[in-house]
Batch of 4 targets.
Target 1
Amino acid sequence: MTDILPSILPSFVLDGWWTPSDEDGATVVRDSSTGEPVTRVSTRGLDLAAVLDHARTVGQASLGELTFHQRAVLLKQFATVLNERKEELYALSERAGATRRDSLSDVDGGIGVLFTYSSKGRRELPNARVYLDGPAEPLAKDGSFLGRHIYTRLPGVAMQINAFNFPMWGALEKFAPAFLAGVPSVVKPATPSAFVAEAWVRILVESNLLPAGSLQLISGSVPGLFDHLGLGDLVGFTGSASTAERLRAQAADGVRFTSETDSINASILGPDATVGTPEFDAYVKQLLVELTTKAGQKCTAIRRAIVPQGLTASVVDALRAKIDERVVIGDPRAEGVTMGPLVSVEQRDEVLRQVDALLGAGGELLYGSTDAPAVTRADGTVGPAPDGAFVAPLVIGFGDVDSPAVHEIEAFGPVASVLEYADAAQAAELVARGGGSLVTSVATHDAAFAATVMSGIAAFNGRVLLLDRDDARTSTGHGSPVPHLVHGGPGRAGGGEELGGIRAVLHHMQRTAVQGSPEMLTALTGVWHPGAGTRSDRHPFRKSLAELRIGDQFASGEREVTLDDIETFAAFTGDTFYAHTDEEAAAANPFFPGRVAHGYLLVSWAAGLFVDPDPGPVLANYGLENLRFITPVSPGDSIRVTLTAKQITPRETDEYGEVRWDAVILNQRDETVATYDVLTLVAKQP
Ligand code: NDP
């Protein structure tokens, strides 16, 4: 990749690069700091229907050949190739106004999302194509009829419309879960930073790792998009609430439309967090980060600082000191610059318009100036940059906290308002006035205050960060969504869940309740259900993954439990709980007929009953899950165990896989004593 961008930015469609033959009317994209043209975008003549069709046919077919784990392994490979070429992406991002620190969120953040989804996909999803939701539901007394919820991928295309502020992270946070689910993506970046999106897509294309049709990129607008979308397709939109509303109205029935739109996020300073406390310092530091990172162009940035009565001046003074000490505004290519411009002069003008609206609605400028700031230029000189999109940090005070403007107007730049509250209830109420936010943070070391506020704000937020002295150093921060947790928010924030671990993957899949016999459900899900066929030809511990099949079973002989065994186990382990050692006390307990065997004794014995001791393909037992003791075992009772291969998960990158065994301990009356899953690692080959 060279530093010179093509005069018109190509799209990657139908597994090839495409540029319009007619460049008339192409939109010019400009450098955020200097206003110089960088490239142009246009989709004039692009056959959008063919692009979507390619995703639904070729993309669906190639992704459908892969299991969750195979897709997850590819995500890691994508992350690795992008990681190796980060410098190119940083350099390009500078042209869209991003400093090196901003690129940590966008470039490294995007790569991080791929790594996280790769690892979560392999740990939390089966190495299969169907995902099971919850346990089987018995629907007939004799076990011959069951119900189960399964997730299968949507058959269409994931159309991802992204915002200008995170051309890489914002796209990859949608692409990663869609890819893992097996749904092909069409990425439509926002025009002002489309050249950064083109760069990461180009790197992936050059890696030759992308399954055919799994990723397409449209550099430019998508007129008529909604005419081509229907049931089984998804739209994930990030941008302004007004565009989201307009597009949502155009989406046909059955199109899964979610949006992540501008939100008036809040940050509460607790009453205990007075000047000099670690919470006060963490609060001010966080405010600085949120004002200046990406020049405040973050969907999660703090727009409303909600502080105890009388504390506005202290917060603003502390913030001023930090800004004076640390913030150098300028061209991200210049040495020492810590805060870049907004993405475009259009955005700058829009932000200044919103600031005017806030001031006109009763706001008072407590810090900063709306005049064009003197900035550090690329050559190191300092002065005005009229063609750059620079805005200095601005803090606005609102004496009237009920002014609707402060809760409704988003100035999408380095702008925050300060409001004072009287008590926890009012602080929570002010947060809720935002009409649904992506995130609120609460800086307090007082758990009772946090709990009261939380009960008032949880329903209005996608995420809440509790900041105090114990986590301030390690906290990922107010404005940094993490792939493990939900990123999205209710109401005005759009209702989407772009991130949130496997939840975001399932968003690309359909949940269906399937009813049938154990045999049918076993065949359909690849997981053995009690009542389905079994095979007991030889001990399953002697079989490698190449030979083992679900339903392979071992049924042990019986072993009698004596009082002596129980006493020995109690003395040996130190577990002398009265139910095992004191006949009278045990009999007085409503659950026991008298002294009973320890559950752990039975589970240990069960292992002794089912194990095949010789060296073989079973490599390790790595745990038990879902252990339940159901019927107590008294001295004189006998137990036996059946062990059935329930689920086999070969690991893509290792010479072994996981086998989940269904274990059932029964007594001499065939009553179920205990049930659990035994988890083992088994070699792929003998
Ligand atoms: P827009 O809502 O105008 O654009 C967002 C995305 O939607 C862009 O990719 C844009 O493409 C696309 N788009 C616009 N119209 C259509 C359409 N008819 N069909 C399909 N796609 C369309 O937001 P902006 O980027 O202009 O930002 C404006 C405001 O949005 C900001 O000031 C801020 O308030 C908010 N915002 C919120 C963000 C968040 O993360 N929640 C992020 C960024 C902005 P194109 O660029 O080609 O027009």
Target 2
Amino acid sequence: MAAITLQKLNKHYGTLFHAVKDVDLEIADKEFVALVGPSGCGKSTTLRMIAGLEDITSGDIRIGNKVVNHLPPRDRDVAMVFQNYALYQHMSVYDNLAFGLRNKKTAEAEIKAAIDRAAGMLGLHDLLQRKPRQLSGGQQQRVALGRCIVRNPQVFLFDEPLSNLDAKLRAQMRIEIKRLHAEIPTTSVFVTHDQVEAMTLGDRVVIMRDGRIQQIGTPLQVYGKPSNKFVAGFIGAPAMNFIDVGVRSAAGVTSVEAEGLRLTVGPADASALAAYSGRRVILGVRPEHLMLGGGAPGLGFDARVEVVEQLGSEILLETRVGSASVTAARVPAETVIARGDQVRLSAQAGRLHFFDPETELPIS
Ligand code: ATP
């Protein structure tokens, strides 16, 4: 069993910089957790503290049931995959894979069996005699993964391992990592700044900002019920639209209004917004929940097209509504549309988000 528990984990760099703030996180045995957030949010520092590569300032880290706060990395039974692969350049792929086990004085026959198995899983058999410089980036990253697998650790730690790969390879490696986790389920923590990577890989996603956890949840939870405006804007691509609106309730009908926009909200949103009548709130609506055309009554508005991005499968529209810019996705690719056109957009019922402008917390 290798659950990981972080309790009130803090990291200060010097006296001035507080990089990780009171992080509490429980990762279940065999769970795959993705740690995501913008550059500098403290995700790598958190991972490096779990690995033992960075001292902790305060708090506790448990792996299995053991407090590992001050254990050196080699005694934590974790294997880490780095962005730059960290392979030994002068050694063959086989020797790179064997290195950790030889250090542990494992018998050569056992090492060979472990390498055979890992090479089979990762398609490395034909590359075993090559040196890392004779491999592509994707192949090198597979070797780095293989090196972790042969060690059969309790925990895999990934520090942005796909960042140096091109988009297509990244997508392929994502699938390989997912397949690997299905074949040898091992507790895994995967750090990335790419929310698509986090969402597609993680059983759960942990979103960090300025050293603090903002939300922990399954991909569906963080997408559907973001814990604040930051998470709402960070998760999902293209990003959620935010529009400053006023709330009006009259004759039993609640609407939210801005220049060029008046949306009638459904009963659930109306009751959530009751306390905000006459005040301003932030309306959030995802581009994929805005459709071209009439849609549900009370949810349509006119927009002027500013940019048309043809993606082949669909069109992405950048539009202007009053003073707000609004992105709409899911416009059929064959739609004849050009900059300057006036279009009718409509929001999907039940897909509106509202945030308090001061606290940025969801209004629900
Ligand atoms: P990135 O995606 O850019 O790697 P990150 O979320 O992984 O970002 P960390 O590497 O954890 O961020 O760094 C968190 C903060 O701590 C950053 O502001 C960084 O500048 C700072 N930091 C990291 N290492 C040190 C260090 N050795 N000394 C001082 N400050 C540091």
Target 3
Amino acid sequence: ALKVAIVGLPNVGKSTLFNALTKTAAAQAANYPFCTIEPNTGDVAVPEPRLKVLAEIAGSKEIIPSRITFVDIAGLVRGASKGEGLGNQFLANIRDCDAIAFVARCFVDDDITHVEDRIDPVSDLEIIETELMLADLESLERRRVQMEKRAKAGDKESQLNLKLVDLALTQLNAGKPARTAEISKEDRKAWDMLQLLTALPALYVSNVDENSADEGNELSDLVAARAAKDGANSVVISAKIDSELAVLDEAEQLEFLETLGLAEPGLNRLIREAYSLLGLQSYFTVGPKEARAWTIHVGDTAPQAAGVIHTDFEKGFIRAETIAYDDYVALRGEAKAREAGKLRAEGKSYVVKDGDVMNFLFS
Ligand code: GDP
């Protein structure tokens, strides 16, 4: 499953956010540093309002959303790459993830200790990015020696790797995360193999006070500006509100959101941002049993999409019957869509679009 690491300095609201995400008390929030030691992992449904619409039309018994995994990573403080705080163990946990969500404290509350004794979310993010950059620098320099030897001996793969390593080193030495480097499409795979922490797609999450949950505040504006510079995306949430919302049922949630003047829980925005950050989209399968969302990459072809359901579907792919979501809804289901000529037969090279309702034929 796709994994997103939640990182940030102590007491910025990571556990509160993680708890809200997973609706469990597994990651105990507490007002002191280093309270979460083991990485906590939680599976979260990707909010997808279109599934409900499809299920109603088709009379599906069950709705099955896509899922994304969040990992709460603790112990990241200044000096972490040198073994401070909880030391290096968090690095391996992050390396295992597909993207990083950096939580920044954009709320002011004198009762909650700040490890650096001040509220300055951009500097907080810099501390963390710096630790990750130092870790990348160290690992690249360690690997470079052998790589250079092999490259000089004529090894083609090492030559390409060396070129990419030096590109990363140039960025990092200039104080920029590796993700700001421009990598050609052909080099992408080798680049990903370097497994750099600062090359992972990044989302800066501004945790604001309850009154700023909608539009954010001056601090989150600074974070957003910084995100643009670091090649990251940004999103505003109030972890506190979301943790209160998380324990309510749907009707109560709507009522609470209305009182606050919010359109949706901040978490929905966060999950959607993480999803698009990873270049993901959904297609649907719809029947009387279930309406289900499947996660694919933007640009995936029909056989690749089929492969997400089962590898046999990809291997034996013959064709896909496809209805665009809007057509499916406007014509109230598959039968009428077929009559209206809106059910298309698509072959191997079809690039699946977000929201396609699909049936696969395979041998
Ligand atoms: P972590 O160390 O980053 O995991 O931070 P926690 O989630 O444990 O939060 C630290 C403290 O800050 C807890 O007492 C939370 O209740 C509190 N906190 C988290 N988010 C907010 C917020 O948006 N506003 C306020 N006032 N307090 C918050």
Target 4
Amino acid sequence: MAERIIPLADHRLLNAAPAVPTSLETPTGLLSDALARPLQDLRISVTDRCNFRCVYCMPKDVFDKDYAFLPHSSLLSFEEITRVAKIFVAHGVRKIRLTGGEPLLRKNVEKLIAMLGDLRTPDGESLDLTLTTNASLLARKARALKDAGLRRVTVSLDALDETTFRRMNDVDFPVADVLAGIDAAHKAGLGPIKINMVVKGGMNDQEILPMARHFKGSPFILRFIEYMDVGASNGWRMDEVVPSSEVVRRINAEMPLEEIEPNYTGETAERWRYKDGGGEIGLISSVTRAFCQDCSRARLSTEGKLYTCLFATAGHDLRALLRAGRSDEEISTAVAHLWRARSDRYSELRTANTEGLQRPVKKVEMSYIGG
Ligand code: SAM
Ligand code: SF4
Ligand code: SF4
């Protein structure tokens, strides 16, 4: 039986403004947390809304017409997001991913991309600016996104079979429109494009092979994501997780694979390539092979709360500092203190003790914190 559903509104109250230390610091670009992990990656949720109701993320019975999404006044403005991003870049962030909810639903998101595109790292480099999308609006927006300075996109697609995909997105959205979005992004030069497939056992695992066959030899990198116990409303059960090892086993039986080296330390996906030269796939095994030890990601929620882990139960209210007239130096120092104190490693602890782990009751929903 699915576990009890806890509305998100409860969780959003669990946030406090971080303390601002009196002794202010100049960022060095070399911030490290309590487990010696640098701060390199910032994921920004630009909206908590979505036009899909993926069963593993925003199940319809929770995210229904009565659901209290954030009011517009709660959202960080583009100026506020850019100000926070600039502070993070000074601390060492080199990669920014816009997410949500569905980020392309945020009005004029291209304008935000252009503002973030103007930021430079301490050594003068531009950022690796990317976005994760369900692609429903991508065919229409790909060109404008590229022109605004977006480097690449990751597209979520859970099945090629029409019935299965519609059951997963739960709003009857057709596969063909996602494929058209991927094609438009490719033509606009938003590559290399990664395709994310969340595998939920008994729901879409029969699509592993058709998806692998479809994207083999294409310019797109298909990545299989283990269904995670994120949030509090998807009724997650361990027996619905299809381990990455099983995904590899099934594909390898038909299309032989070999494992290859990661591109960089901290890469979330394990990489495998087809022995016949048909390209590569990725496996994101956050349940069976946690990658907390290299996790260099911070998350900024739609309303400006900083989360140091996807499975956090509480965030740090940076918006309160922004709107209280705190200076960049003050906010930067507060962020430095928060990151230095960070010791999150939820997935590792879960892997070590999957059955016995006391799951926090009020984990934040992915659509709010940003996937
Ligand atoms: N709406 C956009 C999309 O779907 O691409 C961006 C936000 S979505 C929360 C980001 C990513 O998180 C997607 O690739 C989605 O499939 C993944 N995701 C959401 N819930 C998940 C879960 N319970 N387990 C694993 N991945 C999940
Ligand atoms: Fe929307 Fe993305 Fe969540 Fe699906 S995974 S409901 S598209 S935010
Ligand atoms: Fe990073 Fe938390 Fe995920 Fe571990 S569980 S990889 S610390 S976000």
